[in-house]
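[job 4471] stage=fold_predict status=RUNNING
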Amino acid sequence: MFKKENLEDFLFLYNNIGDVPFTHFEDALVNNFDALDVPFPDYCKSVEGWCDFLQIEISENYLSLPIDDKFFYLNYLKNKIKLETGELKKKTLVELLNFYDVNSDILDYEKNKPLKDLLNLSFKSITGLENLKKFRDLHREYYQYLLNIERNGILNHVNGLIEVLENRSKAPNKRYYKNSNWFKVGVLFASGEMEKYCIIPDKGKILFKVEFNPPKIAKDLENLSFEKNILGTISEYSSKDKNIFYSKENMLKIISHCNENGISVKPYFTNRLPSE
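[job 4471] inference complete, writing structure tokens
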């Protein structure tokens, strides 16, 4: 039996299954054909269950990493598994018997049975060293096939986590609204800094001071991209991305930011909160 410890153990077993000594066969090959007068020991527990086992390890490591390292970790696993293993083409029972040139007439089996059933039959009727070696190799082929199922399951798990991360990165991230111009200009209005350029009553029309207009204000604020938000707010556009006072949700985010950072919010700002 082979212990399940980590990915390295799985990869080692995957790549060395052809050299694993199946003692039941080896004893018979030396001097004891009677050893095969019982069903072949089931080594399947050694090669099955790796996917479930490693999914836990991979998921725990994944959750412990910062977002930037998650991509690196998952792609590292994906590339390592693909580089150190290869996907196997499934062979039918008949194909395997033909491949190893096994005389199926000496076996008591039905051709529609699964390969596992064949492998666990009594091999009492097998004679000759050559046939015995072929059946040893047939077992190894079967275990390699089982390991390949585990390999594909592990890769599917890794690819699934990568897909989740990619979808998250493509989706709009509301946390970055503070990088938006409506938010930055909104803070200028809420804090009173815009009173340098405008006359802002508690309600009603906001007026530019004589010497200012949106382009001049944006230039003075050293950010020409602010012009559209300043113009949209003063002109009362029906757009939450251009008019600071059009969206209650946006205004509440601005107020929350000011409160969290010790910035006093002007009464005219809160008085202009939309009812909806």
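[job 4471] summary: The radius of gyration is 36 Å.
[job 4471] exit 0
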